[in-house]
Amino acid sequence: MRRLFSFIGIVIVIMFVATGFYLYYLYDTSRELSNHIYDPLPIIHQAYTDSELMNNPVQQKIEQLDEQQVMKHQPFTILIMGVDRRSGDKGRSDVLMAATVNPNDQSTRMMNIPRDTRTTIIGPDIEDKVNHAYAYGGAAMTIATVEHLLGIPIDYYIQVDMEGFQQIIDTLGGIEVNNTLDFQYEGHKFPLGPLALEGNEALAYVRMRYDDPQGDLGRNERQKLVIQAVVDQLQQIQSVFKLNKIAKAIEKNVKTNLTFDEWKKVGVDYREALNHVETEMLKGHGQMIEGIYYYIVTDEEKLRITERLRLHLDG
């Protein structure tokens, strides 16, 4: 598992950074790509955090961290959102991963936030699943909600449309994973053992969760397998033509508030930190509330994880 995360670094960061290493000599190409996917957070995000964070009972027990910036070579936080859109649906952030990156001790701490986690959605101020924040208010509301949940500020975000994975995988010529659960989903069969997956198959592979004995946790593991396979394929690319096609897919499906200069700093100054990743787990339990399944995290657990993440940022 440690080897897996040492390659992943931060989930979507490596989608861009791994590609960026190959594109680095094509300076103008990578700069143009960065400009296309750059999408700063709206001012409304600051309004959410200013008005709501101080009402968080967990937040009241700690000092709020000042925002850190990559350009200052300081520790930073980042939220990775994998948005799954269906027909007639605004989309939900079905993948939420928060990471703290510290160049001083050359380490990264990454934590998956279960999509069913019950929390306050900042803005409408309602109790709902954390992944529903995106449907209510996009990336800005999702980030404000995660800040409230974890009790730390989020400096950067990367949002990827899950359909973009399908395009990238098809451009790579497919991927291979070692499947540990025999199941069928959306007309596709996934037997045990090594599997060769095309883009649409990979998307179905990571979407299934209700037939998985581990539920959302099992789906998270399959997502990691697919991401690892994508990284492995990216590292083998030598064709500039194929890289350009992948860059086009990224351009259409990725948004971030990281600038081109910050991407370069991440790729160089933070590379060692991204190669030493530890995982944190947001502990909780499943509970049915009014007929809906939620993942419940206690205030004590929120405080524990907040202090863990803060300690890493201060280290």
The helix-and-strand class reads alpha+beta
Main sheet, how many strands, which sense, barrel? 6 strands, mixed
What's the level 1 CATH class of the largest domain? Alpha Beta
State which percent range the strand residues make up.
15-25%
The sequence of SSEs as H and E is HHHHEEEEEHEHEEEEHHHEHHEEEH
> Can you tell me the overall shape?
globular
pLDDT averaged residue by residue: 79
CATH T-level fold name of the largest domain: Nucleotidyltransferase, domain 5
CATH architecture of the largest domain: 2-Layer Sandwich
Put simply, the count of helices is 12
| End-to-end Cα distance | 24 Å
Number of domains: 2
What's the gist of this structure?
The chain has twelve helices and 14 strands. With 315 residues, the protein is α+β, with helices and mostly antiparallel strands.
Topology (SSEs and partners):
Blueprint: H1 2-8, H2 11-23, H3 27-37, H4 44-52, E1 76-84, E2 92-102, E3 107-112, E4 118-121, E5 126-129, H5 133-150, E6 156-161, H6 162-172, E7 175-179, E8 183-185, E9 188-190, E10 193-197, H7 199-207, H8 216-234, H9 240-253, E11 254-256, H10 260-269, H11 271-274, E12 277-281, E13 285-289, E14 292-296, H12 299-314
